[in-house]
């Protein structure tokens, strides 16, 4: 049976000179076809599925089919899931507004009448959160890649979110079924930066209109970013970036003449005018995702350019929960934790709340020692590097940390465990290092303005007792931190550490570590396995938001203009230190990570485009 449907499409057409569009359909109506199917006649049913799968299907045909399906949606139970899956694959995105509206109406009717298809509808929408994959044929080879240059992406994404909001409106339990799908559809972290950017951006858009999912969405995104972060060590990024820069600077003009016909763009020849592109591929993907996340944080917290306190507090609670769950237990991440650093810069109360949270975790005996040590490391690094943190807040934190160290010494110094053991006293040693590291960066701001009052404050900390105690923290702390702290405290006659340092250097017995199988020895120069979470930020694009609020070591050196000499440290021990300790001036050194030189490339330019206005 041949049935001819003639339909008019009012879509920028010259009505008088253009013949009406026709849509040819074989078989009966959907309702009749379903009735035949119940009697065992599947011919029309298969014909409908075949016609719906036509890659050249027209807008008028799609509208006609959807209208029919809407009239009999109550009959489309689970027995007809194959037919529904074909309908859900219809190419409705990017079509005329009439097609989009009809499809959205169909989705609304379907999830309302047949909730069994809720997951299928959600999967269909979420699968369009990233650019579609296209096949490019080069010779006899098919190359599959994402269509990153699709100009219709903004419109496509808007229509996806329109569909998702409609579904959530008709099915209140949508959020419970949506989160596993968002996780399952997350692109592999090896995908292109553009694919990851689009998907992360769309996930964050979902969190705006389905706020119940925000914490879970943030946890998902940050967990994926951590996977990238730990797979790109700081030293590796620095090596690749500096090597690429040297190669770019070493290209002669004659060499460039022979490269004019090259079609492939090098990473440094990006379309971005500020060249804020990372050459390291993993770092580039992470940079893109960090830019989206930081822009989201900024836009959620600010309304019409002003900080919204209640929205900021709510987002802080969600991000802090994610920090505790996935960031704090992750060792040696370089960049992801900076989302907390950035958020805390919005208001002093947030920074103080973050420090208070870390402090409570450090002193909590029921917490695992590794988390207590991580909390101490975050405290020290945050106090040292946060330019927005006033000296009064730093002193308030020191007034908590230092008395706690003295109380710990009181409880241990005369006991049977009063010896240097990282496993027994790990939180204590990490807290000592946090204090030393903070004073290296902040001693000048404590002393400036009123030298006498500042010195009295530092003397009141009784640092000498901490340094001289039986637990011997100078033996465990990083040599870079120990030597710098010794130089500063000698200059202001607070503590004379070099006697302890020389004794430790002469003592060839390594640090004792207790284990299940008995005591073992180690000559590791980093027995605490320490890392400073807020070491210099290396990512170029997102780094533009971090740089204005970050205290760089080079800035301290240039402003203080003081020379610290290490003439009392034996040359033999100096040769074993990190390279940045060589030399007579602090200009040549930095108390940062022991495993890297910490001189990050700086990029300048305007901040990234606002999250809500970011084009695709």
UniProtKB/TrEMBL annotation:
Region (Disordered): 592-616
Record GO terms (molecular function): RNA polymerase I core binding; RNA polymerase I general transcription initiation factor activity
GO biological process: transcription initiation at RNA polymerase I promoter
Highest taxon of the lineage: Eukaryota
Matching InterPro entries: RNA_pol_I_trans_ini_fac_RRN3
GO terms under cellular component: nucleus
Pfam family, one: RRN3
Assigned protein family: Belongs to the RRN3 family.
Protein name, UniProt field: RRN3 homolog, RNA polymerase I transcription factor
Organism: Sinocyclocheilus grahami
Gene symbol of the encoding locus: LOC107590381
């Amino acid at each position: 049976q041949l049935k001819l449907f003639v339909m008019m499409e009012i879509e920028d057409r010259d009505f008088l000179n253009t013949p009406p569009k026709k849509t040819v359909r074989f078989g009966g109506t959907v309702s009749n076809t379903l009735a035949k199917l119940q009697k065992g006649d599947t011919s029309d049913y298969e014909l409908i599925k075949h016609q719906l799968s036509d890659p050249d299907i027209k807008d008028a045909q799609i509208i006609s089919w959807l209208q029919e399906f809407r009239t009999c949606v109550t009959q489309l139970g689970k027995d007809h899931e194959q037919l529904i899956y074909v309908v859900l694959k219809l190419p409705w995105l990017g079509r005329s507004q009439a097609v989009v509206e009809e499809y959205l109406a169909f989705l609304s009717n379907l999830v309302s009448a047949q909730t069994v298809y809720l997951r299928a509808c959600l999967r269909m929408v979420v699968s369009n959160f990233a650019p579609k994959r296209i096949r490019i044929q080069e010779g006899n080879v098919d190359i599959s890649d994402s269509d990153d240059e699709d100009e219709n992406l903004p419109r496509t994404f808007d229509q996806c979110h329109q569909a998702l909001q409609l579904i959530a409106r008709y099915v209140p339990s949508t959020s419970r079924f949506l989160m596993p799908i968002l996780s399952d559809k997350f692109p592999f972290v090896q995908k292109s930066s553009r694919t990851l950017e689009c998907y992360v951006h769309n996930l964050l858009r979902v969190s705006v209109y389905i706020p119940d999912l925000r914490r879970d969405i943030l946890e998902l995104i940050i967990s994926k970013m951590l996977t990238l972060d730990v797979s790109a060590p700081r030293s590796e990024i620095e090596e690749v970036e500096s090597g690429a820069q040297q190669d770019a600077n070493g290209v002669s003009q004659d060499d460039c003449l022979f490269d004019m016909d090259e079609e492939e763009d090098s990473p440094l020849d990006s379309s971005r005018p500020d060249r804020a592109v990372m050459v390291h591929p993993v770092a580039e993907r992470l940079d893109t995702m960090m830019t989206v996340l930081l822009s989201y944080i900024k836009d959620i917290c600010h309304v019409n350019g002003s900080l919204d306190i209640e929205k900021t507090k709510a987002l802080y609670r969600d991000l802090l929960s994610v920090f505790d769950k996935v960031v704090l237990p992750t060792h040696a991440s370089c960049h992801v934790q900076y989302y907390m650093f950035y958020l805390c810069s919005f208001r002093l109360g947030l920074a103080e709340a973050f420090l208070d949270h870390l402090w409570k975790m450090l002193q909590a005996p029921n917490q695992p020692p590794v988390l207590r040590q991580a909390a101490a490391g975050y405290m020290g690094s945050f106090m040292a590097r946060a330019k927005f943190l006033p000296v009064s807040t730093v002193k308030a934190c020191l007034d908590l940390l230092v008395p706690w160290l003295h109380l710990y010494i009181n409880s241990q110094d005369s006991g049977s465990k009063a010896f240097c053991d990282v496993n027994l006293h790990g939180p204590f040693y990490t807290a000592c290092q946090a204090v030393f590291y903070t004073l290296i960066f902040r001693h000048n701001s404590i002393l400036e303005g009123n030298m006498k009052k500042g010195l009295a404050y530092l003397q009141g900390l009784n640092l000498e007792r901490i340094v001289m105690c039986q637990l011997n923290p100078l033996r465990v702390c990083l040599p870079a931190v120990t030597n710098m702290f010794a130089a500063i405290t000698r200059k202001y006659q607070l503590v004379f550490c070099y006697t302890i340092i020389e004794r430790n250097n002469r003592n060839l017995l390594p640090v004792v570590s207790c284990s299940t199988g008995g005591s073992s020895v180690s000559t590791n120069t980093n027995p605490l396995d320490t890392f400073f979470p807020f070491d210099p930020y290396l990512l170029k694009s997102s780094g533009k938001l971090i740089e204005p609020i970050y205290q760089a070591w080079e800035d301290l050196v240039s402003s203080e203009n003081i020379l610290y000499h290490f003439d009392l440290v034996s040359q033999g021990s100096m040769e074993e230190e990190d390279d940045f300790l060589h030399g007579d001036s602090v200009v040549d050194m930095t108390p940062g990570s022991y495993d890297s030189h910490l001189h990050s490339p700086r990029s300048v330019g305007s901040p990234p485009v606002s999250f809500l206005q970011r084009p695709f």
